[in-house]
């Protein structure tokens, strides 16, 4: 039996909207007054005392005692960190305050990523070729929760020197 095209389209839309709503509801990075306290308890050992509007600031310094795990183990719970930037690299040069290191002056995931940021971006987060823009437009519009824009490599160039590799070992 053939289902009429409009009916198939409506069913497809309903399934897609249901998946999008479920994905959005299960996003542990989402913050807001409407979320139950249990959503915060996934990562936070205790809730930080936040001045008004601070959840929207990327410059809030992470306090390790507020988190259940360190800034790498917490991310590994859901993400494969083997494909990302090296972590636990000790930094022996000044790093801007908006790129927080852990207590031991080392890079963690939270150095470059702000976990309560927006997953959408107004522009691509890295310099890309025309073909990348054409074929990977959706992926390129993701923010990857970066603390800084990286369209021209600005975030990476904070620590990495294009002529020498990186400023850290």
Structure overview:
By secondary structure, the chain is mainly α. The chain folds into two domains: 1-28; 31-157, no CATH class. The protein has seven helices and no strands. It has helices at 5-25, 37-41, 73-76, 109-112, 130-135, 137-140, 154-157. The longest helix has 21 residues, at 5-25. The chain is globular, with a radius of gyration of 19 Å. 9% of the residues are buried. Residues 16-24 have low confidence and may be disordered.
Content of β-strand: under 5%
Uncertain stretches? 16-24
Quaternary form: single chain
Q: Using the CA coordinates, give the radius of gyration.
A: 19 Å
What do the pLDDT scores average to?
Answer: 70
What gap, in angstroms, lies between the N and C termini?
Answer: 65 Å
Structural class, judged by helices and strands?
mainly alpha
């Amino acid at each position: 039996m053939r289902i009429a095209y409009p009916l198939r389209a409506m069913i497809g839309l309903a399934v897609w909207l249901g998946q999008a709503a479920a994905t959005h509801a299960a996003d542990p990075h989402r913050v807001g007054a409407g979320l139950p306290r249990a959503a915060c308890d996934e990562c936070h050992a205790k809730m930080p005392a936040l001045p008004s509007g601070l959840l929207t600031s990327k410059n809030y310094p992470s306090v390790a005692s507020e988190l259940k795990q360190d800034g790498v183990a917490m991310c590994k719970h859901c993400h494969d960190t083997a494909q990302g930037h090296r972590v636990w690299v000790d930094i022996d040069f000044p790093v801007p305050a908006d790129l927080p290191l852990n207590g031991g002056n080392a890079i963690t995931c939270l150095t470059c990523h702000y976990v309560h940021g927006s997953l959408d971006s107004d522009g691509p987060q890295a310099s890309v070729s025309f073909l990348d823009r054409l074929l990977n437009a959706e992926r390129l519009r993701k923010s990857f929760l970066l603390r800084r824009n990286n369209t021209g490599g600005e975030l990476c160039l904070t620590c990495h020197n294009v002529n020498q590799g990186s400023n850290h070992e």
